[in-house]
Design a protein that fits this description.
Length: 184
């Protein structure tokens, strides 16, 4: 077959080799769990290496926090070597301490509730970036108990499943097969 003939023939859609590989219909399968960063949806049944992932994320966040603290210590020593004065040196330490504590509190809070749409989260992004060590420590501590945000997502998922089951059980029969109501 020449190139011209190939261009004129429409491509045939690929057929699955087995019926089991056919795409599943978009039937009412129920709500899907929301994935969590680094964990996907393994938090739902604690499968797929969930415990190993929790340990790895906890270790990774702790190692990153320690490395960041070492870098901050080196930068502080650089300020002391530069003889910038005690005011600036103390200001930098206080800035990082306050930023880290705010970042820790906001990160820890985000594990238990979603921020309101009109909240000041966008305004605090810079402050949380400066105090990233606090966020890393919050992530580490939460990984010791559960996947960060698991409790919130589990409550939302269970609520959605219960709502879905309630809506599905309220339906009776095929609505298209019902007779139209008589006019009086």
């Amino acid at each position: 077959m020449s190139d011209d003939q190939r261009d004129q023939n429409p491509a045939e859609p690929a057929q699955p080799a087995e019926p089991s590989q056919a795409p599943a219909p978009a039937a009412a399968a129920g709500p899907e769990p929301e994935p969590i960063r680094f964990f996907g949806t393994t938090w739902l049944n604690h499968d797929g290496g969930y415990a190993l992932r929790r340990a790895a994320v906890a270790a990774g966040s702790l190692i990153t926090a320690v490395a960041a603290a070492v870098l901050l210590r080196l930068s502080y020593e650089g300020l002391e070597l530069g003889n910038v004065g005690p005011f600036l040196s103390i200001s930098v330490v206080v800035l990082f301490a306050i930023s880290s504590s705010i970042a820790f509190a906001k990160t820890w809070e985000s594990f238990s509730r979603r921020p309101a749409p009109s909240s000041d989260e966008a305004a605090l992004k810079g402050l949380k970036a400066i105090g990233f060590i606090g966020s890393l420590i919050a992530y580490f501590l939460r990984c010791l108990v559960e996947a960060p945000g698991e409790k919130l997502r589990r409550a939302e998922y269970e609520r959605a499943v219960a709502e879905f089951a309630r809506r599905r059980s309220a339906r009776t029969g095929n609505p298209a097969a019902r007779r139209p109501k008589r006019k009086k």
